[in-house]
Specification:
ten-stranded mixed β-sheet; alpha+beta; binds 2-oxoglutaric acid; 22% helix
Length: 343
């Protein structure tokens, strides 16, 4: 895998030194401030923010390194989305909503729960109508309850006409070119994420390329390259939390996870109109800013087809580069014909 050059492309960066997470400096967007970021122990460097026309952005994506693209217009028609507009137009389908007793929404694969009978998930998936989700969110906001909700639903054909029109107005021309010039497989899904302020998706990696398009509110995204696999201690492959880090970023247990002391992240705060490229196998921790209101994101997940020669070479490079755990899971995906579900 190519050496990570991500920090070097940041026009705001001077010496490339890593700063403690939560105190990185770049060209600040005045609509948020440091007090809205959670505090962590590990250092981070900024992810470059570039125009999609900047040749350095292409280089980063080609190298499978993260970049925030500031002007793709990828989800331009959706920038008007807010809760009242969605309530009016999103339709009467069922939505997957996760509920949790605290702000952390650790993903787990329900199909793997039989393998670990003692596993007790800390969040639960419930199917509900959009209006029920909004009521639950308002209940917590108004009554100061501890139960939080996070809607995470693949966009599908139950959405109303105006949402379809907005969706068709996405910048498919740009994103289709991104896909075809890198020989990625098909778009597998667009996940719609609607979160409460302060919600956290703990660090995990996905087996797909991701253009993560921010629509409303701000999210802080902390990424770690795949070569920091040994710092992040994923759950075992057959565990429901496969691909998720076992390290609690807010209270790391260094006796159990000593290499976490060596973790160095790359971070960016994304706001409406920004698109973060999250390369396949890069760990990502994502938080909706504290006191920042509701966040809305749509992601674009692309399979990588391991069928073409170039992808096989790519795959072999990965297998060579990363630890046994990871290569085992990649090999499993290849032998299964790469059946991807969420991520
Ligand atoms: O936005 C989030 O909270 C999580 C999104 C995520 O993990 C993804 O798009 O892969």
């Amino acid at each position: 895998m190519a050496a990570v050059t991500v920090a070097g492309a940041d026009p705001a960066e001077t010496d490339g030194a890593a700063a403690p997470a939560g105190s990185f400096t770049d060209l600040r967007d005045p609509s948020w401030n440091d007090s809205q970021l959670r505090q962590y122990t590990f250092p981070t460097r900024p992810i470059p923010r570039l125009s999609h026309t900047d040749p350095r952005a292409e280089v980063l994506i080609n190298n499978e390194e993260p970049v925030v693209l500031t002007d793709t217009s990828l989800v331009y028609p959706a920038l008007k989305w807010d809760i009242p507009y969605l309530q009016e137009n999103i339709g009467n389908g069922d939505f997957s909503v996760y509920t949790a007793e605290n702000h952390k929404f650790l993903y787990y694969d329900e199909k793997k729960m039989a393998n670990f009978q003692d596993f007790v998930p800390k969040s639960h998936r419930v199917e509900m109508k959009f209006s029920e989700f909004v009521d639950k969110m308002h209940q917590t906001e108004e009554q100061g309850g501890t139960e939080r909700v996070y809607l995470q639903q693949t966009l599908n054909d139950t959405v109303g006409r105006k949402i379809v029109v907005d969706f068709l107005g996405f910048n498919w021309n740009w994103i289709n070119k991104q896909q075809s010039k890198r020989n990625w497989g098909p778009l597998t899904s667009n996940l719609l994420l609607i979160g409460m302020e302060g919600n956290v998706t703990p660090a995990h990696y996905d087996e797909q390329q991701n253009f993560f398009a921010q629509i409303k509110g701000h999210k802080r995204c902390i990424l770690f390259p795949p070569d920091q696999f040994d710092c992040l201690y994923p759950y075992p492959v057959h565990h429901p939390c496969d691909r998720q880090s076992q390290v609690d970023f807010e209270n790391p247990d260094y006796d159990k996870f000593p290499n976490f002391k060596n973790a160095v992240g790359y971070e960016a705060v994304v706001g409406p109109g920004d698109v973060l490229y999250i390369p396949m196998y890069w760990w990502h921790h994502i938080e909706s800013l504290l006191s920042g209101g509701v966040t809305i994101t749509v992601n674009f997940w692309y399979k990588v087809c391991f069928c073409s020669t170039i992808s096989v070479v790519h795959c072999l490079v990965y297998i060579h580069d990363i630890s046994l755990h990871k290569s085992t899971s990649i090999k499993q995906n290849i032998s299964r014909g790469h059946p991807l579900q969420r991520g």
